[in-house]
Amino acid sequence: MATASETTLVTTHNESGTKWWTRFLDPSERTLAVLLLMPAALLLTLIIVYPVCRLIWTSFQSLSLTSGLPATFAGLENYTLMLEDPVFWETTWNTVLITLITVPGALFVGLALALMANLPFNVKWPVRLSLLIPWALPLSFAGLIFAWFFHSEYGVVNDVLRRIGIEGVIWFNSANWAFAAICLTIVWKTSSFMALIILAGLQTIPRSLYEAADVDGAGRLRQFFEITLPLLKPAIVVALIFRTITALQTFDIPFTMTRGGPGTSTATLAMYIHQNTVDFLDLGYGSALAVVMFALSMGVTAVYLRMIRAKG
Amino acid sequence: MTLKTTMTLLLAGAAVTLSASVATAQTNLRVFVSSQHRPDVWRKAFDMYEAKNSNVKVTIETGGNTSEQQAQYLNTVMTAKDSSLDIMILDVIRPAQYAAAGWTVPFNEVLGSDAANYMKRYLPAYAEANTVDGKVVALPAFADAMFLYYRKDLLEKHGIQPPQTWDELAAAAKKVTDAEKDPNLQGLSFQGKAIEGAVCTFLLPYWSMGKQLVSDGKLSFDKDAAVKSLKLWKDFVDQGVAKKNIAEVATDDTRKEFQSGNVLFAVNWSYAWGQFQGAESAVKDKVGVVKLPAVQGGQPASCLGGWEWGVSAYSSNKTEAQKLVQYLSSPETSEFMAINASLLPQFPEVYTDADVTKAVPWFANAKPVVETAKARPVTPRYNEVSEIIRTTVNGVLAGQSTPEEGATQMEGRLRRVLR
Fold it and tell me: Which of A83, A134, B107, B351 satisfies CB 3.0 to 4.6 Å to A192 for a cystine?
C-alpha cells in the first residue's frame, strides 16, 4: 500500500508542474539512490571503466613509441602476433603453472597455520604477529630477501644444506630449481594472508558444536572433516578468489628474484606485459597482452562466483 | 603579539619572498645522473657552473644502479610527459631510441650550421651515436669501453704474458689456478646474468670473427659465428675457467670478486680501475689492464660504452638546459671528470693532456681501445634486440639450451624485431 501511495504522490508532484530541480530538494527514493550512488559510480568509471576501455582500444592499435610513427588502427594484428610469439606462450604457461602450484600450496600451509594460531595459547599476540609479518612485507622485499637466501654462494639455503651434508644446487642456474625457489617464496609470502582469512572463519564456528561432537564420541580428525572444514568453506572460497587473482598477476617476486631467468624460463605474463610496455615501449602489443590477462582474471573470478552461487 | 601585527608581519614576509624571486629570475635545472658514475664528482662540475651562472641552480637526481633500471625509470617519466627532469644521462645505446620517441630536443638550433664541425671534435664513435638523421640528439658525457683486467702479480709469478687470444687466456688461467690450488680463485669472470653487459659478452667474440650484427639497418646475423661465440663462453664454464654460477654474475659482481682477490682475469668497463686502486681493494697495485683478447685468427674487439647528455622534450627550461649540457660536454669538464672520477674522455686530445696522464697514466693505453671499440647496433628497437641477446646468453650459460639452439632462437627472434 505504501508504494502505491508513494507513486501517486510522485506523479501528482510532477503533474503539478513544479520546476525539475525541486526533485532534488524533495527527492523520491529512486533519485536519492541515484544521487547517493553517483559519486562512487563516477569514481569507478574514472579509475576502472575508462582505463579498461582505453586499454582495449589501444590493443587494436599499432602504437610503438620507438617507431616514431603516430598510432594507427591495426585491427587484430597485435593478437595474431601474440599467437605466433613463443615468449607469450611460455610466460602464460609459467603464470598458469605458478597459479596451480602456489594457490593450493598457500591454502594448505595457510590452513595449517590458521589451525595452529587458533589453538588456545595463553599469550596470543606472538602467534598473530608472526602470521602478520610475511603478509605485511612488500612483495618485492620478499623477492629480494629470498633471492639472497637462494644465492648459490652466499645464500643461507645452500649453507644449511652444506652443513647437513647435502651439496646445494645453483638455484638460479636451472629453470626447474629457479621455478621451485620462486614457488616456495610465493607460498611463504601468501600463506599468511590465507591463514588470516581462514582464522577469521575458524573463530565464527561455535565451540558448542565441538562439545556436542565430543559427547557423541567423534575423534579429533572426524571433528575436523565433519565440522571445521564444511563450516570453513565460505572463508576458503573467498581466500581462494583473492589468491588466484593475485597469482595470475604474479610479478614482483620473479621480477626481483630472477628477472625471468635463466633465459625466459621463469618470466610471467605480467612481467612480459611490463617488458613490452615499459622497456620496449610497444604500447599496442603490451595492451593486447594485458587484455588477455584481464580476460583470464575475469574468467577465473566468474568460475569462483558461480561456485559460491551454486553453494548458496 | 596582536593579530594585527601578526598579519602585517606575514604580509611583509610574503612581499619580501615575492620580490626576491622576481629579482633573480632563477632557473632550476633537474639533472638525472647514473648513480654508478660518480654523482659526487658531477656535483662539483655543477657547482663550478653555478658559480659562473648565478641565475642557474642545478639539482641532481639519481636512481637505480644498472643501465636497465635507470632506463625503466626514465621511460616511465618520459611516457608520462613529466616536466620534472630537464637533463638526463643516457647509455650510449639509447639516444637513437629517445630521439625516435620524440623525448629529446635536438641541439641543431643552438649549434647552428656549425653542428657537423662541432661534432667532429668528439671521438668518431660518439659523434655517430648522437647523430640521428642529421640531427644532434644528445652530446657525449664520457667514453667507455671494455678491457681485460688481470692480476699482474700472479702472471709475473708464473711467468705468463697477458693473453692475446681467448685460447691463451684459458691456458693461462688453468696453469695459474692449478698451481695456486686456491679453491676461491676463478680463472675468468665475465657477465653471464641477463643484463646489458651480457649483450657485450656475446658480441666480443662475434665481432672478433669480423662479423656484424646489423648493417645498413638490416640484420646481418652470422649463425656460425654466433654458435662459436656462445660455445666459447660455455666452454669456459665447462672447463672450469669460469665459475659454474656465471649465469648469476652481473657487471659489479665481476668487479667485487676481482677486487677481493678471487679472480685472475676479468672482463669489465673502465670504471673498475678506480675501484681496484681504492683503499679497501685487496688488489691495489697488483692489477694490469690490456685490450681484450681475440678469437684465434681474429681481431681483438671491445664493446663501446659511454654515456650521453640529452635534454628532455618536456623540460620547461630547454634553452638553459642545452647551455648546461654544452658546458658538461666540453673538453674542460671532460678533463675535470677524467682526473677526478677517472671517466674516459670523449675528446681524443684529452687523453694526452699532461694533467690527465699524470692522474690516470693508463688512459694513454686506453685511447686505442676506445677508438677501435665497436658500437652495439643503433636502432630505436634496441631494447628488444638487447633482451633477446642477453636472455639467450644467460640461458646457454645456465645450460638451458645448447649454443646451437641458442643461436637458432636468437636468429628467429631478432628477425621479428629487425625486419
Answer: A134
